[in-house]
Amino acid sequence: MTEHITTVAGVAVDTRHWIGGERVASVETFTDVSPIDASTLGEISRGTATEAAAAVAAARAAFPAWAATSRAERARILHAIADGVDKRIEDLANVETLDNGALLRSHRRGVMPRVAHNFRFFADWLLKLEHEAFTTHTSGSAAGRGHTNHVSWDPAGPCVLITPWNAPLMLATWKVAPALAAGNTVILKPAEWSPLTASLLADIAAEAGLPAGVLNVVQGYGAEVGNSLVSHPDVRRISFTGSVPTAQHIARAAAANLTPLSLELGGKSPLLVFADADLDLAVDLAVEQYDNAGQVCLAATRLLVEETVSDEFTRRFVEKATRLRQGDPRDEATDLGPNIHPRQLEKIDGIVRRALEDGARAVIGGERKDGLYYEPTLLTDVAQDSEIVQEEIFGPVLTLQTFGDEEEAVRLANDTRFGLAATLVTGDHERAERVTARLVAGTVWVNCFFVRDLRAPFGGSRHSGVGREGGTWSFDFYCDVKNTVTAPNGWHNHG
Ligand code: NAD
């Protein structure tokens, strides 16, 4: 082991930043710890305003050439990155699991293949990105008749991408891939609790032939290097996934430069179960909300069940949920790994304790276990305006409330400050349409959950976010969209 390389699950990971095609160390470091067993994974470079400025300068210098690179060539390099990810799926999965404690089997078979797909998808989307030209037939002035309008997507410049720890490489590459495809250069700042796979991505991108400075990775704390990045006047876009308070901070910093923002934030999403639902399906979908130990922004943590079926639903839910296995996330048989950090566990436990003191009843769970594990928990007898119903917990904690009719279901579903997603389970197609139309949510799943097609818009309403990403929406955000209006016979003077 050299000074700046740490070996994690047998994989060599560089602990320094990646700036302008070179590894750069900071004077200070921070310790990266595994949530599985509190072992030290590495001493990671702790970026400051100096590294932030260097990364933005590198991204700025690399921008003109990358923006001028043909779409075909950009797409070819993104495909090469996807191939590089595919070759290293085992490495990435093993490192990510040690770093953030999520299941190895899902990293191996679900998440990392999707990371490769993110690059392929946006490379291919770039190649067919087109807006049909149209002709202006009516206008206030006669001169407006017969003019053609042509829409194009111009690369915007250096983009700062800031991401959380709950699905580190997956969420980072939802941003990195479209930002690069669009012809932008990137400064990625991964979360300090899970910094490692971003460093491996830098290696993979360099091996794939991405020119120096096009992708930069800066490590460190949000309040330090993160703050310097989002405050930098040369940054043309900021895309952030994380919590509401951080988003508010970033929005204030970005306001000084009017830097356009995309914010993917938290949620408190409902799962509505109507009496006409397939109850087994409803229970399967409800138990799925414990995935990733509840650390999923989209998780439907509020179960809203029609009164007439709530006893039967609860009985079947308990039967299934109590069979979940908690343990080492590297074990194939494990369903729930640890939560990420002692601070997070404190937060989860604090919210549950206060709810119990206020009269909530734990149907299952409600206790911490050894290490960073928290029992899968279901609480009932909770008030709509209570903290446990209103605030995002980000742990394996669900609440169950009942409703009498559709009207009440919709009212409860919409009654938080969030609007990220909603899931409804019903056998009635017309009901699904009626209810969906009234739900405030960026994504509604009907009789399913967590299906994410990259062509679709993704984002949240209210405090769950600003803007949408996915397919053309990503290019709209990462580009300066331009409309060129050409006169019908504008060329006759020029021979
Ligand atoms: P967080 O807001 O604490 O941190 C997210 C990132 O922001 C980290 O990289 C952090 O270093 C950085 N950061 C912190 N302060 C900063 C500052 N002042 N300036 C710039 N950067 C700063 O969030 P978290 O705890 O890492 O993630 C959990 C949150 O993310 C939850 O609220 C969850 O719902 C949300 N999330 C949302 C989505 C989505 O797509 N909507 C997906 C996953 C997670």
From TrEMBL:
Keywords: Oxidoreductase. Residues 28-483 form the Aldehyde dehydrogenase domain. The active site is at residue 264. It comes from the Bacteria. The keyword tRNA-binding does not apply. PROSITE patterns: ALDEHYDE_DEHYDR_CYS, ALDEHYDE_DEHYDR_GLU. InterPro entries: Ald_DH/histidinol_DH (IPR016161), Ald_DH_C (IPR016163), Ald_DH_CS_CYS (IPR016160), Ald_DH_CS_GLU (IPR029510), Ald_DH_N (IPR016162), Aldehyde_DH_dom (IPR015590). Belongs to the aldehyde dehydrogenase family. This is 5-carboxymethyl-2-hydroxymuconate semialdehyde dehydrogenase.
